[in-house]
Amino acid sequence: MRKPVFSILEQKYRRIQKELMIGTLSLLGVLLTGTLWYRFIEGWSWEDATYMTFVTLSTVGYGETRPLGSRGRLFTIALILMGIVTIGYIVNRFTEAVIQGYFQEGIRLRQQRRTMESLSRHYIICGFSRTGRQIAQEFEAEGVRFVIVDSEVETVRAAQEEGYTIYQGDATLDETLMRVGIDKATCIVAALPSDAENLYIVLSAKTLNPRIRAIARASTEEALQKLQRGGADAVISPYITGGRRMAAAALRPQVMDFVDGIISGTDRELYMEEVLIDYKSCPFVGQSLGEARLRAKTGALILAIRRASGELIGGPTADTILMTGDVMISMGTAEQLRALNRILGPIDSKSLRKPKKG
Questions:
Q1: Residues in a beta bridge with 271
Q2: How many whole angstroms separate alpha carbon 106 and alpha carbon 26?
Q3: 112-156 pLDDT, tens per residue?
Q4: Closest Cα to residue 180, out of 200, 202, 205?
Q5: Contacts for 55-64: CB closer than 8 Å, 24+ residues apart
Q6: What's the helix, strand, coil split of the chain in %, to 5?
Q7: Which parts of the chain are beta strand (E)?
Q8: How far is it, in rounded angstroms, from Cα 294 to Cα 123?
Q9: In 10 A of CB 285, how many CB atoms?
Q10: The predicted structure's pLDDT at residue 322
């Protein structure tokens, strides 16, 4: 049976929970010891023995229930000391739990577990650094379900303050990925600063869920090639991509402004989406774009079509035939893209998300 993996926050909560349990059991042990002593050694009744034990441990200053000899008084002194130590330990642990907010943390962890169990067709972001934070902002703007994985306590707390669902753990471990629903996820984004860790994540993700789409961050050209060989569906180098975008912004500023305006941000008028053509749901498989009249029916502009073989057809003409397995890249307003989705039929793909619905 696989041993469960707990985050650092969970470990701290379980530690204080265990310590409080130990203190409570120790106090019960002291109560039982005192009661049994007075009952069998002193020969008192169960009622008197229990009463004397509680009075002694509470240190309220009542007198002896019955006269005690030297042996009984020595035991009572020991009982008082044991009670003070045990109760002091419990009070100390309880105070720490209240001050540190462990009880609230326990409630949050239970809510997090329920959230993790309900995740399906979601996205996983590994790493909440500057890159991961930007990805999270874009995902939130798009309204997709996602969960973040990071190992740093400060980073986890920062993500929680921003309202994101985050799990604290090592994303390179299979157990951690299983905890965030890798087997039910649509896509995983490895955005850690370390290329080696990103490679481990891609390998683990593809092993646990061969159908998942894996996006990875690479710092060098060599790392980019290794990640591609490791199974990453797309590898992005912030330095290479950033340099190309800066050059494009310098040479073609209006083009870059237009492209940025339709692929990111929350206040967009135009959107770009990709739609999977499936013969089970699409009534236009085998027809040309001219016959389908998608532009006239929806207003959406078909920019490109990627065949199942990997061939990319840019600016498809009216004679371009729609084939099953094609990925149609289109542009339009939110309403136009919703209309296009309705015409093409519901998407049933574990590798592509549905077009934006609002």
A1: 332
A2: 23
A3: 677 777 788 899 999 999 999 999 998 988 788 899 999 888 888
A4: 205
A5: 56/80, 56/83, 57/30, 57/31, 57/83, 57/87, 59/83, 59/84
A6: 55, 15, 35
A7: 123-126, 146-150, 166-168, 187-190, 213-217, 234-236, 271-276, 301-306, 312-314, 327-332
A8: 30
A9: 19
A10: 92
At 176, the amino acid letter reads T
Query: Rounded distance, CA 144 to CA 125, Å?
Result: 12
pLDDT bracket for residue 107 (50, 70, 90) = low
**Widest CA span of the chain, in angstroms?**
109
Count of Cβ atoms closer than 10 Å to residue 1 Cβ: 3
pLDDT tens digits, one per residue of 253-297:
888 887 777 776 556 678 888 888 888 878 888 999 999 999 999
Give the C-alpha separation, 200 to 197, whole Å. Answer: 5
The Cα–Cα gap between 357 and 64 comes to: 77
Question: Residue 321 has what DSSP assignment?
Answer: B
Q: Give residue-wise pLDDT tens across range 4-27.
A: 334 555 667 778 888 889 999 999
The continuous run of DSSP H or E covering 296 comes out as helix 294-298
Q: How far apart are CA 44 and CA 49, in angstroms?
A: 6
User: Model confidence over 297-343: pLDDT tens digits?
Assistant: 999 999 999 998 889 999 899 999 999 889 999 988 888 888 888 88
Non-local (6+) Cβ contacts of 166 within 8 A are: 128, 147, 148, 149, 150, 156, 159, 160
Q: Which of 146, 164, 143 is nearest to 155 (CA)?
A: 164
pLDDT given for residue 3 in this prediction: 35
* Distance separating the N- and C-terminal Cα atoms of the chain: 44
Q: Give CA–CA dist 22/51, Å, rounded.
A: 24
| Statement: residue 165 has pLDDT above 80 | yes
Query: Quick one: which of 23, 184, 181, 18 has its CA closest to 90?
Result: 23
Quick check: 168 and 150 in contact, CB under 8 A? yes
Q: For the chain, give the mean pLDDT.
A: 85
